[in-house]
């Protein structure tokens, strides 16, 4: 098994609950992402986040991103573990938040200017354009970029203006196989760029997402002792998987391994059942 240790927490959800108009959507969610440290590696964190349609994944993402306050509980982010504020966490939604009337370089500059002084912002943007192979496209407008280029730009934008933690909402949906490989590569790049970079991937593509992740969270319903389904979805301890501990994280060819495929089938059954 690949040697690793978990160090300080980077994201902590403490008894997070949410209701809308008296309907409990999320109930008492407690979960944590800690800094993964591997010898001689810059290793960020990847959490795969699953749950059936309509169960509350987007609601939890907005709470983690500090965009919606929870009805109860707290979200703490970063090495300082301070309560999350809007803007601390990048959220890459399917509708990319690029401004259509600005060039790619201007879009990124706008994002970087929220974190850095003008000189530093210019340098950061140049470095990100280079890293994400977007330098030749810097003067194009979003409508002139391919889907993959836009996806890379949206991820770069969120990394530039947030603080190491980004949430990707369905990054693989509607993409062809080559594009899926491209997005996988970007996610790997992001997590090997900086030790503290943490990516939470919300996806219905269980195999692709699990292959990239070191941790999984499964949002589901629990039953009480009498077998009654409790209101609101939660991430029970049984549904927080440490893939690194299971020996299933960080293998480039993990999708070809029988043990991985058995686990993915088990997971799918678990998702169907909850
Ligand atoms: N602003 C809101 N007001 C009232 N109800 C809401 C609001 N936002 C979300 N909900 C409800 O919360 C529940 C969870 O919605 P959410 O969008 O988080 O599901 P999801 O797991 O992301 O689904 P999908 O996988 O289909 O995107 C739904 O029943 C939804 O109607």
Task: Tag the structure with descriptive keywords.
alpha/beta, globular, 274 residues, six-stranded mixed β-sheet, single chain, 24% strand, binds adenosine-5'-triphosphate
Q: What does this protein look like?
A:
- With 274 residues, the chain is an alpha/beta fold.
- It has a domain at 5-88 and 204-273: Rossmann fold (3-Layer(aba) Sandwich).
- Helix content is 31%, strand content 24%.
- The protein has 7 helices and 10 strands.
- It has helices spanning 57-64, 104-112, 118-131, 147-161, 177-193, 206-212, 258-273; strands at residues 5-20, 23-37, 45-50, 72-77, 82-83, 89-92, 165-169, 198-202, 215-218, 240-242.
- The chain has a 6-stranded mixed β-sheet with strand order 6-7-8-3-9-10, sandwiched between helices. The chain has a 4-stranded antiparallel β-sheet with strand order 2-1-4-5, covered by helices on one side.
- A hairpin with a 2-residue loop joins β1 (5-20) and β2.
- α2 packs parallel to α4 (147-161).
- It starts with a strand and ends with a helix.
- The mean pLDDT is 92.
- The structure holds adenosine-5'-triphosphate (ATP).
- The site of adenosine-5'-triphosphate (ATP) has 10 residues, from α1.
- The site of adenosine-5'-triphosphate has 10 residues, from α1.
């Amino acid at each position: 098994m690949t040697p690793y240790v978990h160090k300080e927490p980077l994201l902590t959800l403490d008894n997070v609950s949410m209701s809308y108009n008296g309907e409990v959507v999320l109930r008492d969610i407690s979960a944590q992402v800690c800094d993964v440290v591997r010898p001689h590696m810059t290793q960020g964190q990847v959490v795969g986040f699953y749950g059936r349609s309509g169960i509350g994944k987007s609601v939890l993402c907005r709470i983690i991103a500090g965009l919606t306050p929870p009805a109860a509980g707290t979200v703490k982010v970063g090495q300082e573990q301070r309560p999350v504020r809007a803007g601390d966490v990048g959220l890459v939604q399917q509708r990319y938040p690029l401004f259509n009337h600005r060039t790619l370089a201007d879009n990124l500059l706008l994002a970087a200017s929220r974190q850095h002084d003008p000189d530093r912002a210019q340098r950061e943007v140049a470095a990100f354009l280079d890293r994400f192979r977007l330098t030749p496209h810097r003067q194009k407008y979003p409508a002139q970029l391919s889907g993959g280029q836009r996806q890379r730009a949206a991820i770069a934008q969120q990394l530039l203006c947030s603080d190491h933690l980004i949430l990707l909402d369905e990054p693989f949906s509607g993409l062809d196989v080559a594009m899926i490989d491209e997005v996988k590569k970007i996610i790997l790049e992001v997590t090997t760029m900086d030790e503290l970079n943490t990516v939470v991937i919300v996806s219905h593509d269980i195999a692709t997402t699990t292959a990239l992740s070191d941790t999984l969270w499964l949002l589901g319903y629990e039953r009480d002792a009498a077998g009654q389904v409790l209101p609101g979805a939660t991430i029970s301890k049984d549904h927080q998987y440490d893939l690194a501990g299971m020996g299933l994280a960080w293998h480039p060819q993990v999708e070809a391994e029988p043990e991985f495929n058995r686990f993915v089938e088990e997971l799918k059954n678990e998702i169907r059942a909850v």
